[in-house]
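Input for the complex:
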Amino acid sequence: MLSINDLHFSFFTPAGEVRALNGVSLDVASGEVVGIVGESGSGKSVTASVITGLTQAPGRVKSGEVMFNEIDILSTGEKAMQKIRGGEISMIFQDPMTSLNPVFTIGNQLIEAILLHTDKNHKEARAHAIHMMSQVGIPNPEIRMKQYSHELSGGMRQRVMIAMALSCEPKLLIADEPTTALDVTVQAQILDLMKTLRSETDAAVILITHDLGIVADICDTVVVMYAGTVVERGTVDEIYDNTAHPYTRGLLDCLPRLDGDTDSPLEPIEGLPVDLLNMPPGCPFASRCKHTMNICLTTPSPEFELSESHTSRCWLHTASRKAEVRA
Amino acid sequence: MISFTIKRFFGAVLTLFIVCTLTFFLMNIVPGGPFLSEKTSQQTLDRMNEKYGLDLPIHEQYINYMNRLLHGDLGISYKRQGFTVNEIIAEKFPVSAKLGIIAVIWSIFSGVILGTAAAMNRNKLLDRAIMFISTIGISVPGFILGTLLIYLFAEMLGWVSATDALGSPKQYILPVITLSMQSMSYIARLIRSTILDVIDSDFIKTAKAKGVSRIRIIYKHIMRNALIPLVTYVGPMTAFIITGGFYVERIFNIPGLGDYFVRSVETRDYPLIMGLTIFLALLVIVVNFIVDILYRVVDPRIKLQ
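Predicted:
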């Protein structure tokens, strides 16, 4: 349904070209939940903004293709994109505290989205908004409709955002770190809600996060990004049980484990993320990798296909060399 | 809301009382008196002082004045004989108010449009031009601008008359521009900076992600938020424009209240000084009250108490 092909995106700043995306390819099928994982600056959110056509100057797509249900997003005009945004593709953002307009009621903002994308009149839109609010577990939706965002807790606001995002039955929902700004108990509630809604709607979901726990919890497939490239992709089981890329390994080793030896220290990934202004010629992860070889410093690795659904971009796989795709 | 109004009412009474008392005693401390400029004998002077109660000890004068004030009587003007201060205000205030209100509306209207245009064209030529003009508008005092405008448009070009104050709609143009230039420039800068603040906020991103059009984002989601600091400024500005009318009325020969204010002080017309001061104080109090109510309307996060 969504297909991103070799996407290159850069910010052209006075300091130089910041290469945010360097050949990202990504496929999302109908009803699938894809997790995009990576640390800050890995290109997760930029990818989302390209999909929704919300990129901002000085950022620009250099090359590549984004197809959504036969629509070429990159060449679609602003008017048509407005129809798609909030209608077929909707988004949930990281910080529910600031994502709602403080001077309009919750109801006003929900109804606005519904009126924009459906044929409903104001009264029907209002009824639908109330229905959506009860569906995301907001008690007393009629009263909440008349309230302002400052009268709601963080968890309630994120529920409102989810209700808003789902109100026009999107085909694709992009959730950009939807639980990062919430405290842990509320996080769990929101994740439960997302799991429930997942089974109720057939929308595909792209879940952007840096929390591998969440990914294991609700995703079908995982895409691991580093420095604007997809370094590993696979089903949740493949990523967790047959971790292929050293970066993914590193991310998993950072996580505390309840079932493991409590005395074994957590292992951080040494070093800093690569400078996107001065990308090294070889593998971007080479400077932090424990397994760096000579070739890693000079030539970026192609994508090795480890199984039908599992790929990894690392020269280590030449040793066991299974197959090579999309060099 | 009701308890807020009641609290505000008592606050206003207290403020007015302080203003009256201060003005009354300050006015009397200033050397000179209302009739000293008239070349009369000491006898006549004494008789006039006696007639207006000015021979009494100062605290008795004060009590007498406050007593009359409580009955809504502002006294009789010493200089414009035969007229009560109430009558003078009733006659002259509409002239000042009309000019002032036009200037307030114009400065808000043009300021908001210029500010929005500048913000939407951030760092482009139009933005820089508007910011340049508004910097000048803020820095140049009204009496200089007014004089320049008269010289240019009345003297040199002869488009309007320099003497026929407010005689026709055309005659309003120069006084209104003079009166509103500073506030218009300030509002333009204020609106520009608030829009640029709001435009990068998360809820605008949400609105875009909902598919709201650019125009609608500006006039609905951004404007409503930009109104909050504007309301803060408009309150004092309205009072400023009315008091700013002092010199503008002088320059443009407008027979309004401002001109009387200046003259009343010069001639020690005590009841008129008192009356006009109290009236202006009342005006500022009322405007501030309206602003507080408006605050609640534009920003739901504010609770009145």
